[in-house]
């Protein structure tokens, strides 16, 4: 990694409010993967009066509905939009406005709006409303029950309405239409500070709804002492309970990953450690894990680490609901970042991002036997433009790469099918 890239990382962490003295040393030592700044907007994207276009979005989140229609969500000029495609992203319908009143929406890097649909076609959206101050925000929610023609007035899901950090939300939809939303929450940090007590990291809170998002049960804490600035990932287990994974602050300042499978929708289960990298760092790496659960109940997890003994990207699987994980497979070296995993039957795909000094590169590995053996990495896309993080989505029959490069068309690329 070049010294210039290290400075870019440091500047990014300072802006995000995640930098400490240890971060400064880590960045200058060149131990963190590259982060790429937004490019200056040009053409139609520089015109605030232009019609909204996903071409100008920095991030796009995507999913398929139960009928195979592709849905995407993105932000343009403080408004959230939804579009759909019936031809795997070759063309899209008109943008559908979600929030009629403009609000500052976080939509970059590991911050991004989320979109999910239930089996009846209801559309659910979450995003972070940005407040003044680093990482201060509220978790917002809206829904549509008529195919996106109308969206409900956005509501704030976090019941602590103080101007604190409520951010990095993750959403999953249960088999009966239950809505599970989790996020990183600073209310415990604030309470500890007022009491003169030291509180490491942040906390993980959630809310859920069993009436299609009309109402949410009161917020509950899942875990204390989480990393402050790393994305979460959630999935639904075969027994229709939520599973969540995150970067945790373990004893001694170790920032490795943890996972909880819920006993039921009201009851978080025991915390299990994922991997044993023993990365001690007094800062948030801004790299969260990825999780996918197959129909047979195998948990597949990917993550980034930069401990003295383990650097790069790692994969492991669990056959006992996350209580134990397999030996870690190191598939991406230093400089690789933001892995994402998706399992479809016994097929498992993993994508991630690399930067070779000129291009943003997306790489892929595949397994046909539930993660026991893997193909050699292959390049599936690249650009010299600034790029968003890569994600995998499925229509139930095939696996696709979902990726956005700035001021260029959204990419949906078929990478694995039966």
Explain how this protein is built.
The chain is mainly beta and 418 residues long. It has a domain of 32 residues. Helix content is 7%, strand content 40%. The protein is built from three helices and 27 strands. A four-stranded antiparallel beta sheet has the order 1-2-3-4, with no helix packed on it. Strands 5-6-7-8 form a four-stranded antiparallel beta sheet, with no helix packed on it. A hairpin with a 5-residue loop joins strand 17 and strand 18.
Give structural attributes.
418 residues, four-stranded antiparallel β-sheet, 27 strands, disordered N terminus
Briefly summarize what is shown.
With 418 residues, the protein is mainly β. The protein has a domain at 1-32.
| Number of helical elements | 3
What would you call the shape?
globular
Give unreliable regions as ranges.
1-17, 19-36
How helix-rich are the residues, as a percent range?
under 10%
Largest sheet: 4 strands, antiparallel
Number of strands: 27
Q: What's the SSE pattern? A: HHEEEEEEEEEEHEEEEEEEEEEEEEEEEE
List the SSEs and their pairings.
Blueprint: H1 3-16, H2 21-28, E1 61-64, E2 70-76, E3 79-85, E4 96-97, E5 114-117, E6 123-130, E7 137-144, E8 155-156, E9 166-173, E10 179-185, H3 187-194, E11 202-209, E12 220-226, E13 233-236, E14 242-250, E15 254-261, E16 271-274, E17 290-293, E18 299-306, E19 311-318, E20 329-332, E21 337-344, E22 347-355, E23 360-367, E24 378-383, E25 391-394, E26 398-403, E27 411-417
Antiparallel strand pairs: 1-2, 2-3, 3-4, 5-6, 6-7, 7-8, 9-10, 10-11, 11-12, 13-14, 14-15, 15-16, 17-18, 18-19, 19-20, 21-22, 22-23, 23-24, 25-26, 26-27
Helix pairs in contact: 1-2
């Amino acid at each position: 990694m070049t010294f210039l890239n290290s400075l870019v990382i440091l500047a990014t962490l300072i802006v995000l409010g995640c930098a400490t003295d240890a971060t400064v040393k880590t960045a200058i030592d060149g131990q963190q993967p590259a982060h790429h700044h937004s490019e200056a907007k040009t053409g139609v994207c520089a015109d605030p009066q232009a019609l909204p276009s996903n071409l100008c979005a920095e991030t796009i989140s995507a999913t398929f509905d139960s009928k195979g229609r592709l849905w995407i969500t993105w932000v343009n000029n403080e408004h959230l939009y939804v579009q759909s495609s019936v031809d795997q992203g070759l063309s899209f319908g008109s943008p559908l406005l979600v929030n009629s009143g403009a609000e500052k929406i976080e939509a970059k890097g590991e911050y991004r709006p989320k979109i999910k649909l239930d089996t009846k076609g209801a559309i659910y959206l979450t995003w972070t409303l940005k407040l003044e101050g680093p990482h201060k925000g509220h978790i917002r929610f809206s829904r549509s029950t008529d195919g996106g023609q109308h969206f409900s007035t956005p509501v704030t899901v976090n019941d602590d309405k103080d101007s604190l950090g409520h951010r990095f939300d993750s959403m999953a939809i249960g088999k009966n239409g239950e809505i599970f939303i989790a996020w990183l929450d600073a209310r415990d940090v604030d309470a500890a500070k007022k009491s003169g007590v030291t509180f490491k990291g942040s906390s993980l809170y959630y809310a859920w709804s069993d009436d299609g998002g009309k109402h949410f049960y009161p917020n509950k804490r899942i875990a204390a002492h989480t990393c402050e600035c790393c994305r979460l990932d959630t999935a639904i287990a075969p027994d229709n309970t939520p599973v969540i994974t995150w970067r945790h602050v373990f004893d001694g300042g170790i920032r490795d990953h943890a996972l909880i499978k819920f006993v039921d929708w009201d009851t978080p289960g025991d915390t299990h450690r994922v991997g044993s990298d023993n990365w001690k760092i007094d800062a948030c790496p801004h790299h969260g894990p990825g999780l996918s659960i197959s129909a047979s109940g195998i948990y597949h997890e990917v993550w980034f680490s930069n401990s003295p003994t383990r650097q790069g990207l790692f994969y492991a699987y669990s056959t006992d609901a996350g209580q134990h994980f397999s030996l870690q497979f190191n598939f991406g070296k230093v400089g690789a970042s933001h892995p994402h995993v998706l399992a479809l039957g016994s097929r498992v795909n993993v994508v991630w991002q690399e930067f070779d000094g000129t291009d943003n590169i997306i790489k892929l590995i595949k397994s046909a036997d539930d993660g026991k053996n893997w193909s050699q990495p292959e390049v599936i896309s690249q650009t010299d433009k600034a790029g968003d993080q890569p994600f995998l989505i499925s229509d139930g029959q095939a696996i696709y790469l979902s990726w956005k490069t700035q001021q260029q068309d959204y990419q949906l690329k078929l990478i694995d099918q039966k």
